[in-house]
């Protein structure tokens, strides 16, 4: 599903290059559940943003479903993103001017889902995550954990084939975090959704089929949990 060949990301500072990612080579098969681990500043979020087509590498090739992503026009990339990818951001990225209901509905609008179907899908998700009572509130009226939960629901509602999650449970209590990780596991096992999560949590990482350890922008090693 995903092939990264010789991915570098750097920022120029005078004559010096400050590297964020160095020579990343990675294959992710469809249906995989991959955990990225590493200290802050190791490049996890940057790597997710490149895979999620929100950032471009300085050098290297990215193939998604055998298509060269950065050889595409921006419009084609956006269509690919809308069709296949759900992104759970560490900093929520909710739209302040929209209610909880409208934030969750937004991906369906982009996909042209009919009004009656949108209402049914949003209602199901609100009920599933016990946030019906929050549907008319705006993001600034929610706690950090509630905003994170809404961001996760928004990423899941369009039934993406690939979920990219940047510290998905970082602002949730332990019970909510366990529920989200079990949901990811269910989506992966039963629906074949490919999941790539960045996490500091060994517990969360253990849900994955493979853990990739990053340090200073490089893959240090990979291991498969027993």
Write a structural description:
The chain has 226 residues and is α/β, with parallel strands linked by helices. The chain has a single domain (2-223), classed as P-loop containing nucleotide triphosphate hydrolases (Rossmann fold, 3-Layer(aba) Sandwich). Helices cover 35% and strands 28% of the residues. The chain is built from seven helices and ten strands. The chain has a six-stranded mixed sheet with strand order 6-7-8-3-9-10, with helices on both faces. It has a four-stranded antiparallel sheet with strand order 2-1-4-5. Strand 1 (2-13) and strand 2 form a beta hairpin. Helix 3 (100-110) crosses helix 4 (115-128) and helix 3 packs parallel to helix 5. The longest helix is centred in the C-terminal third of the chain and has 18 residues, at 174-191. The mean pLDDT is 92.
Task: Name some characteristics of this structure.
226 residues; alpha/beta; Rossmann fold; 6-stranded mixed beta sheet; 4-stranded antiparallel beta sheet; 7 helices; 35% helix; 28% strand; globular
């Amino acid at each position: 599903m995903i092939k990264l060949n010789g991915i570098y990301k750097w920022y120029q500072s005078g004559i010096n290059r400050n590297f964020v990612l160095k020579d990343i080579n990675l294959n992710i098969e469809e249906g995989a559940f991959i955990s990225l681990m590493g200290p802050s500043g190791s490049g996890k979020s940057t790597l997710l943003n490149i895979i999620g087509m929100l950032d471009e590498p300085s050098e290297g090739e990215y193939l998604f479903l055998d298509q060269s992503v950065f050889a595409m026009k921006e419009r084609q990339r956006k269509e690919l993103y809308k069709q296949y990818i759900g992104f759970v951001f560490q900093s929520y990225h909710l739209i302040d001017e929209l209610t909880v209901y409208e934030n969750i509905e937004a991906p369906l609008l982009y996909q042209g889902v009919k009004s009656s179907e949108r209402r049914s899908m949003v209602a199901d998700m609100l009920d599933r995550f016990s946030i019906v009572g929050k549907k008319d509130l705006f993001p600034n009226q929610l706690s950090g954990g509630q905003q994170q939960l809404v961001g996760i629901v928004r990423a899941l509602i369009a039934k993406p084939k690939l979920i990219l999650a940047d510290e998905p449970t970082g602002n949730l209590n332990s019970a909510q975090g366990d529920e989200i990780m079990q949901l990811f596991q269910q989506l992966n096992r039963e629906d074949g959704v490919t999941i790539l999560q960045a996490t500091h949590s060994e517990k969360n990482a253990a849900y994955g089929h493979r853990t990739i350890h990053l340090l200073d922008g490089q893959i240090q090693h990979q291991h498969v949990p027993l």
